[in-house]
Specification:
By secondary structure, the chain is an all-alpha fold. It has one domain. It is built from four helices and no strands. The protein has helices at 10-15, 21-24, 27-58, 63-67. The longest helix is centred in the middle third of the chain and has 32 residues, at 27-58.
Length: 68
């Protein structure tokens, strides 16, 4: 997706300042943004769910429960 020859070559275009406004809103660019966001958020979300499950099993309250 980011640097394959038959693909949009987003990494190279972005790194060299060749990515213009319409290309930055293309399906490939939006998908790359979504994929990067998912790679960052999903591990954090899983860690949060695991901490909440452990807290429930031990009877403790979590920071999320305290704030609500």
């Amino acid at each position: 997706l980011l640097c394959e020859q038959p693909g949009p070559n987003l990494r190279n275009d972005l790194a060299h300042g060749l990515l213009n406004d319409p290309e930055s809103w293309s399906a490939a660019a939006v998908y790359a943004w979504w994929l990067c966001l998912r790679l960052v958020v999903l591990p954090y979300y899983r860690m949060l769910l695991k901490a909440q499950a452990e807290a429930v099993s031990t009877g403790e309250t979590t920071d999320v429960e305290r704030s609500s």
